[in-house]
């Protein structure tokens, strides 16, 4: 399974990166392939490109701030989550996404 | 480059008994290092943000922060409280990172360090080190590694 995610938070200082780390760690533990782009005060890092979109099962976007260039994910299943949930409940979020993806197969 | 965290910005067994007091006591630490333009203004920003978006992130950790013009130099203060305080309706906190960033922080360097620190906080090994170390110097090393 392959997931893409983009994280962003109001000040762009801390939660953006915590959420990215939490999602990456939770995905790794579950054997899920993930790439997380951060849109923080440093700018956009680990940018998700057209190549990354291939074979993607689902996209997770945080919803506290507008996500830049979200239109590149058009046509893919998108899950919007609160950034605080991405930080605290990355495990549960991935479980739900996993269940959704499996139900479509 | 000036460090964002120094020995004087770390405190162990802080005895503040409420969230408001924790923020005030820690903001004063930052002020004492001449890293703020306006202590009161900075605290107001931090409180305001907490009202709309409490910064407890689980694991007894909270990361209150203010990105505002009242800040002179990008700073992190760390406190381990003597006993945990109520941080939000759902969560208590005992390990506090108070972050201060100028609104118009030009250089990326400090923000990179903060991003790295934020990622580290999500790692259990790092949190265990914060919990178990009893020396300020040791903590400084852990926080700046």
Automatic annotation (TrEMBL), chain A:
A GO molecular-function annotation: protein-N(PI)-phosphohistidine-fructose phosphotransferase system transporter activity
Q: Which InterPro entries match?
A: Bacterial_PTS_Sugar_Transport, PTS_EIIB-like_sf, PTS_EIIB_2, PTS_EIIB_2/3, PTS_IIB_fruc
UniProt GO cellular component terms: plasma membrane
Q: What Gene Ontology terms for biological process does this UniProt record contain? A: phosphoenolpyruvate-dependent sugar phosphotransferase system
State the superkingdom: Bacteria
The record places domain PTS EIIB type-2 at 1-99
Task: One Pfam family, please name it.
Answer: PTS_IIB
- Give the keywords, sorted: Kinase, Phosphoprotein, Phosphotransferase system, Sugar transport, Transferase, Transport
Q: Which CDD domains match?
A: PTS_IIB_fructose (cd05569)
Give the protein's recorded name. PTS system, fructose-specific, IIB subunnit
TrEMBL record, chain B:
Q: Which UniProt keywords apply?
A: Phosphoprotein, Phosphotransferase system, Sugar transport, Transferase, Transport
One of the record's GO cellular component terms: membrane
Please give the PROSITE patterns that the UniProt record associates with this protein.
Answer: PTS_EIIA_TYPE_2, PTS_EIIA_TYPE_2_HIS
Q: Where is the PTS EIIA type-2 domain?
A: 3-145
Q: Does the keyword Oxidoreductase apply?
A: no
Which SUPFAM superfamilies does the UniProt entry name for this protein? Phoshotransferase/anion transport protein
* InterPro entries to which the protein is assigned, alphabetical: PTrfase/Anion_transptr, PTS_EIIA_type-2_dom, PTS_IIA_fruc, PTS_SugarTrans_NitroReg
Molecular function in Gene Ontology: protein-N(PI)-phosphohistidine-sugar phosphotransferase activity
Look up keyword Cytoplasm and say if it applies: no
List GO BP terms, alphabetically.
Answer: phosphoenolpyruvate-dependent sugar phosphotransferase system
Query: What PANTHER family does its record include?
Result: PTS SYSTEM FRUCTOSE-LIKE EIIA COMPONENT (PTHR47738:SF2), PTS SYSTEM FRUCTOSE-LIKE EIIA COMPONENT-RELATED (PTHR47738)
Protein name listed in UniProt: Putative PTS IIA-like nitrogen-regulatory protein PtsN
């Amino acid at each position: 399974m392959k997931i893409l995610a983009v994280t962003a938070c109001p000040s762009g200082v801390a939660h953006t990166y915590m959420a990215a780390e939490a999602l990456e760690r939770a995905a790794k533990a579950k054997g899920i392939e993930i790439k997380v782009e951060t849109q923080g005060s440093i700018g956009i890092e680990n940018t998700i490109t057209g190549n990354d979109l291939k074979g993607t099962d689902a996209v997770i976007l945080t919803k506290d701030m507008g996500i830049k260039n979200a239109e590149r994910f058009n046509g893919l299943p998108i899950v919007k989550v609160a950034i605080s949930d991405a930080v605290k409940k990355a495990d549960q979020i991935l479980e739900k996404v996993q269940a959704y993806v499996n139900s479509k197969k | 480059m000036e460090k964002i965290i120094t020995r004087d910005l770390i405190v162990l067994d802080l005895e503040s008994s409420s969230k408001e007091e924790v923020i005030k006591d820690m903001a004063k630490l930052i002020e004492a290092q001449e890293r703020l333009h306006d202590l009161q203004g900075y605290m107001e920003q931090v409180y305001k943000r907490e009202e709309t978006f409490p910064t407890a992130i689980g694991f007894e950790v909270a990361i209150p922060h203010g990105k505002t013009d009242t800040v002179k130099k990008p700073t992190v203060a760390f406190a381990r409280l003597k006993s945990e305080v109520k941080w939000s309706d759902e969560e208590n906190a005992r390990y506090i990172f108070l972050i201060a960033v100028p609104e118009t922080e030009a250089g990326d360097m400090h923000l990179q360090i903060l991003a790295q620190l934020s990622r580290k906080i999500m790692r259990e090994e790092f949190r265990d080190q914060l919990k178990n170390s009893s020396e300020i110097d040791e903590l400084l090393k852990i926080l700046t590694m």
